[in-house]
From TrEMBL:
Top-rank taxon, per record: Bacteria
Annotated transmembrane regions: none
Cofactor requirement: Mg(2+); Mn(2+)
This protein's UniProt keywords: Magnesium, Metal-binding, NAD, Oxidoreductase, Transit peptide
GO biological process, alphabetically ordered: isocitrate metabolic process; tricarboxylic acid cycle
Record's keyword annotation contains Heme: no
EC number: 1.1.1.41
Family to which this protein belongs: Belongs to the isocitrate and isopropylmalate dehydrogenases family.
Tagged with keyword Membrane: no
Protein name: Isocitrate dehydrogenase (NAD+)
Amino acid sequence: KTHKVTLIPGDGIGPEVTNAVVRILEATGVKFDWESYAAGAEAFEKHGEYVPKELYESIERNKLALKGPVTTPVGGGFTSINVALRKKFELYVNFRPIKNLPGLETRYPGVDLIIVRENTEGEYVGLEHEVVPGVMTSLKVITEKGSTRIAQWAFDYARKHKRKKVHAIHKANIMKLSDGLFLKCARNIAKGFPEITYGEHIIDNTCMQLVTNPYQYDTLLLPNLYGDIVSDLCAAFVGGLGLVPGANLGTDAAIFEAVHGSAPDIAGKDIANPTALLQSAILMLHHIDEAAAADRLQTALERVYTEKKTLTRDVHGTAGTSAFADAVIAAMAVT
Ligand code: NAI
Ligand code: MG
């Protein structure tokens, strides 16, 4: 079977890490038919649109995309393409497993956390207004439907994967109505999962608790913005943003992408770590029922990290992006 996949290389380090991952995926033996599209500033220069119509149509057809990061300018310019794609395809789940790779020494060994971030509402609805000069508002929208479906997904995942705890993270002491509703929905869903311990922690305390002892948590269920911030925090447990994968999931489509952004500080130098996107691609292989290829790739990746010979700079190696990809491909050949 040939899998049709929409490919969004993105910008900054996007094209470098995407290239590396596509080469590795091609070497798994799984057959792919890539439909590649520019998005962001580059797409605007070429087509006059930040997200070309063809890109939307391609995802609509394939229901599957692999995506590199896209730079979103601060202030004016355009609204985030990530936000646009997640909204358009109702990708309400942002799933981010935080797990140490065998062989890689990190600040905290043996971390195994699941982040389930609500991906379509909260502060990301883009409802911002200048009330009068000098006064700006950004609306945060939390709905019963949005909160219930993400809580349901988190608990279903926890049950399926035999996770023990789910913590809903909030600031309902201050945002009594919006975060209060998020909690109420989570509590309701939790009732159907008596075998899973349910807890509620306030976001600021959660940050302190995580850094003090990340092992006390199992699955974290968070509204959009808190999930965004806590993801980067948790990335530091397992070696940084170069490692952590993600999946944007909805009922009709899935977009796999790393947690990190376009890293302009290291772009174009062949030094970015493609592991985060590669691990996202492994999630994608599972999603398309190519579990054998996913396992082969995982084993090869772990071998490269255990051997420590060809690692990128962010994980204290000296290898470049493409040399790392070559090493994973070579490791696959011997497994
Ligand atoms: P960033 O995640 O791009 O970079 C943060 C730090 O981590 C930098 O020091 C960078 O060099 C390092 N880093 C990130 N990925 C790495 C990798 N694969 N290997 C080695 N080091 C890596 O965050 P930043 O700089 O705040 O954002 C840059 C741009 O990316 C912004 O325009 C932002 O809006 C956009 N962004 C896009 C995302 C997406 O398309 N999904 C997600 C997050 C940010
Ligand atoms: Mg982020």
